[in-house]
């Protein structure tokens, strides 16, 4: 009889989401209004905290591994000057944190593949928000463009809500 197998170190860390979050945090740290030393220390503390909590033996600690990433992302996003690229990088950082959450080592293997459809809705929201920021002129926005963006967003949401199998493809646990 074999006991529960431990996840590999790569899977335990949730490297895809952690790597994208680290790149987003690095870009925001370099462009933030904070002194470079403070921004760098915040970035390193967030990554060390996320990795340390993800490797923590207690499941409650592992469940809180996303908190340092979100705190650093929030601080760096607020202190970074508002540009189109900064908005996109901050949105990608949020999606990276969701990918980090989806790739939970305490769940069944393949969580990243199953979770991509769940992360699709926030990714579409980031895309709609960023494209509307590009399409809509500053100041007064034409009603037609705003209505077109709204109709597109509602159509995507209606499609995704009409397909609940896209969101939860994990098999139900039976006892």
| Percentage of β-strand residues | under 5%
Counting structural domains, the number is 1
Tell me the helix content.
over 70%
H/E element sequence: HHHHHHHH
Structural class assignment: mainly alpha
Round the mean pLDDT to the nearest integer and report it.
75
Number of strands: 0
Question: Biggest sheet, open or closed, and with what strands and sense?
Answer: none
Radius of gyration: 19 Å
How does the overall form come out from the CA principal axes? Answer: flat
Low-confidence runs of at least 5 consecutive residues: none
N-C termini distance: 18 Å
Number of discrete helical segments: 8
Topology of this protein?
Elements: H1 9-13, H2 15-31, H3 36-54, H4 59-63, H5 66-79, H6 84-102, H7 111-135, H8 143-161
Helix pairs in contact: 2-3, 2-5, 2-6, 3-5, 5-6, 6-7, 7-8
Description:
The protein has 175 residues and is an all-alpha fold. It has one domain (11-166). It is built from 8 helices and no strands. The protein has helices at 9-13, 15-31, 36-54, 59-63, 66-79, 84-102, 111-135, 143-161. Helix 5 packs antiparallel against helix 6 and helix 6 runs antiparallel to helix 7 (111-135).
Compact overview of the structure:
The protein is an all-alpha fold and 175 residues long. 70% of the residues lie in helices and 0% in strands.
Describe the structure using short key phrases.
175 residues, 70% helix, 0% strand
């Amino acid at each position: 009889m074999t006991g529960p197998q431990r996840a590999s170190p790569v899977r335990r860390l949730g490297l895809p989401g952690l790597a994208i979050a680290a790149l987003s945090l690095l870009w925001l740290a370099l462009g933030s209004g904070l002194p470079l030393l403070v921004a760098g220390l915040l970035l390193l503390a967030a990554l060390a905290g996320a990795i340390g909590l993800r490797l923590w033996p207690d499941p409650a600690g592992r469940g809180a591994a996303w908190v340092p990433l979100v705190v650093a992302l929030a601080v760096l996003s607020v202190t970074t000057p508002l540009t189109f690229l900064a908005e996109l990088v901050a949105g990608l950082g949020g999606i990276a944190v969701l990918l980090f959450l989806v790739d939970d080592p305490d769940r069944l293997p393949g969580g990243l593949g199953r979770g991509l459809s769940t992360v699709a809705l926030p990714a579409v929201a980031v895309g709609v928000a960023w494209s509307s920021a590009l399409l809509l002129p500053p100041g007064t926005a034409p009603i037609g463009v705003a209505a077109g963006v709204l109709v597109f967003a509602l159509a995507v949401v209606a499609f995704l809500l009409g397909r609940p199998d896209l969101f939860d493809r994990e098999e139900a646990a039976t006892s």
